[in-house]
């Protein structure tokens, strides 16, 4: 990335000294993707959307579409972007838009389980898993499905749904289903992070039910737009039924804004000086290099090694630069509490089905917060300070 001048040592020099001295709490628990604001500020009015008061008033977008609340222009923009990046097939499948992919995940659980003859359907994911799946599968206490935890140790008879997140939240690994029974199983592939600024694009995914989110591509989490690419029309219809009962569709204002921004990504993705993906990759990679420097300079912490791979989009071999760091302690101690004492909030490994010596750290915060995080990590990396 050229135009934005990322430097390896510091994402942002402004405010850095003040912030590193500050004793404020840094919240890296949620994966709030504010780090991309800088890019969009530089884009100025390119993606500004103006909507007159008389426009977009109807509930309906296209009554002929299975997903009748999907704006046709958004559908085109989604297909064009996947085509340009090469990360997923969009042919011969239905696109279901949702209020974030969180809503679509619940719609998919409803669809797949209500189409199953035997209920409740077991829901599993291999540890460490995205902690929100536990809540999504449990909080309504549905009779349709039941959270059963780790997919690797799952041995219950009957139908099941496996959540496969690739690259994985929280540890950035590339994943395949692990249950792999001959029958009775359905898979929801969550590809929230299968974009070139996070991971090499090694193949065009062609799964039955794939989830994507606008939040983690561009950072526009506040627009609450996600989409599902669904092969089976009955599953797509059931998902639409869920969304109809749940929210009677999805905000058209958000869809129009997402359309504008996704089209801009597609238009500029091959122009090195403007490409969001070039920018995003440089920025993520620089953050990871700095984190590794801090971890490697002591003997207290562990982070996974993400193998390099040839990225079909960039046309070269690159490292992964995941949206979360799965930080561990070599000592047997609660790392979340240790970091909290040092005013850094993270998500404890226990919420992801693992030991408390691991935490999930968001890599997507604003520059200032990330700088303060590294500074605090460097001050506690000395083993003597962290012995029980
Ligand atoms: N799936 C994964 C793996 C995620 O990390 C997230 C966001 N944290 C989501 C789904 C949900 O994203 P959203 O609802 O913002 O589209």
In short:
Its cofactor is pyridoxal 5'-phosphate. The chain is an alpha/beta fold.
Descriptive report:
With 388 residues, the chain is α/β, with parallel strands linked by helices. It folds into two domains: 144 residues, Aspartate Aminotransferase, domain 1; 197 residues, Aspartate Aminotransferase, domain 2. It contains twelve helices and 15 strands. The strands form four sheets. It has a seven-stranded mixed beta sheet with strand order 2-8-7-6-5-3-4. A four-stranded antiparallel beta sheet has the order 9-12-15-14, with no helix packed on it. Strand 10 and strand 11 form a beta hairpin. Helix 9 packs parallel to helix 11. The chain is globular, with a radius of gyration of 21 Å. It starts with 15 loop residues before the first helix and ends with a helix. About 4% of the residues have low confidence. The structure holds 4'-deoxy-4'-aminopyridoxal-5'-phosphate (PMP). The site of 4'-deoxy-4'-aminopyridoxal-5'-phosphate (PMP) has 13 residues, from helix 4. InterPro entries: Alliinase_C, Alliinase_N_sf, Ethylene_sulfur-biosynth, PyrdxlP-dep_Trfase, PyrdxlP-dep_Trfase_major, PyrdxlP-dep_Trfase_small. One of its GO terms (molecular function) is carbon-sulfur lyase activity. This is Alliinase C-terminal domain-containing protein. One of its GO terms (biological process) is amino acid metabolic process. Keywords: Aminotransferase, Pyridoxal phosphate, Transferase.
């Amino acid at each position: 990335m050229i135009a934005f001048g990322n430097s390896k040592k510091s994402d942002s020099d402004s405010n850095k000294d003040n912030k590193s001295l500050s004793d404020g709490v840094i919240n890296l628990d949620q994966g709030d993707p504010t780090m991309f604001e800088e890019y969009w500020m530089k884009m100025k009015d390119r993606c500004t959307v103006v909507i007159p008061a008389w426009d977009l008033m109807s509930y309906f977008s296209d009554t002929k579409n299975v997903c009748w609340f999907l704006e046709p222009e958004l559908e085109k923009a989604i297909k064009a972007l996947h085509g340009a990046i090469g990360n997923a097939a969009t042919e011969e499948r239905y696109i279901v838009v949702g209020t974030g992919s969180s809503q679509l995940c619940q719609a998919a659980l409803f669809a797949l389980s209500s189409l199953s003859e035997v209920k409740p359907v077991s829901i599993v994911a291999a540890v460490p898993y995205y902690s929100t799946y536990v809540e999504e599968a449990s909080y309504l206490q549905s009779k349709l499905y039941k959270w059963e935890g780790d997919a690797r140790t799952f041995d219950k008879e009957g139908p099941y749904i496996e959540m496969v997140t690739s690259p994985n939240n929280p540890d950035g690994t590339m994943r395949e289903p692990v249950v792999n029974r001959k029958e009775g199983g359905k898979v929801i592939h969550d590809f929230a992070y299968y974009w070139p600024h996070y991971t090499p694009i090694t193949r065009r995914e062609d799964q039955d039910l794939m989830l994507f989110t606008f939040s983690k591509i561009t950072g526009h989490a506040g627009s609450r737009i996600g989409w599902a690419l669904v092969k089976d029309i009955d599953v797509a219809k059931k998902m639409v039924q869920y969304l109809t009962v749940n929210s009677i569709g999805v905000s058209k204002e958000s869809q129009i804004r997402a359309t504008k921004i996704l089209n801009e990504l597609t238009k500029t993705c091959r122009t090195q000086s403007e490409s969001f993906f070039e920018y995003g990759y440089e920025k993520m990679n620089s953050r990871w290099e700095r984190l590794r420097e801090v971890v490697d300079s002591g003997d207290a912490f562990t982070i996974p090694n993400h193998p390099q791979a040839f990225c079909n989009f960039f046309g070269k071999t690159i490292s992964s630069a995941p949206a979360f760091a799965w930080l561990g302690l070599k000592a047997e101690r609660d790392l979340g509490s240790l970091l909290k004492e040092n005013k850094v909030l993270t998500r404890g490994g226990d919420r992801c089905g693992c030991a408390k010596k691991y935490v999930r750290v968001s890599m997507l915060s604003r520059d200032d917060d990330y700088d303060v995080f590294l500074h605090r990590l460097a001050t506690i990396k000395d083993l003597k300070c962290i012995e029980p």
